[in-house]
Amino acid sequence: MAPVETEDISHGESHAVLIGVSNYRDTAFPEVPAALNSVRGMFDVLTDPELCGWPEDRVTIIENPENAAMLAQKLRRIAEQTSDTLLVYFVGHGVISDLGDVCLAVQGTDLRDPDLTGLEYSKVRHIVMGSPAQVKIVILDCCYSGRVIQGLSAGGDSHFADVTAVSGAYTLTAADAAAHVVPLAEQITVPTSFTRAFLDVVREGIHDGPSALTLGDIYRELRLLIQSRGLPEPNRRGTDTVDLYTFTRNTAFRPPGRTAEHTGDLTVRLITPEAEELLIRLMEKQDPVDLTLENLVALDDSPGVYQLYRRQARNEGAIVYVGQSDRSLRQRLQGQLVKISGRLNIDVNEMSFARLYVEDDLSVVNPARLLVNRLRDQGEEIPWHMNGFGNSDPGRNRDRTALKFQHFDAQHPINLDWVIRNDGPSGRMTVLEFATLVKGRLPYLFRFAYQGREIETVSVEVPEGAISADKAFRLLAAALGAEWQVSALSGYVVMYRERGVEYPSATRYYCGTRVWDSTPEFYGA
Question: How many alpha carbons lie under 13 Å from residue 502 in its C-beta half-sphere?
Answer without folding.
Answer: 8
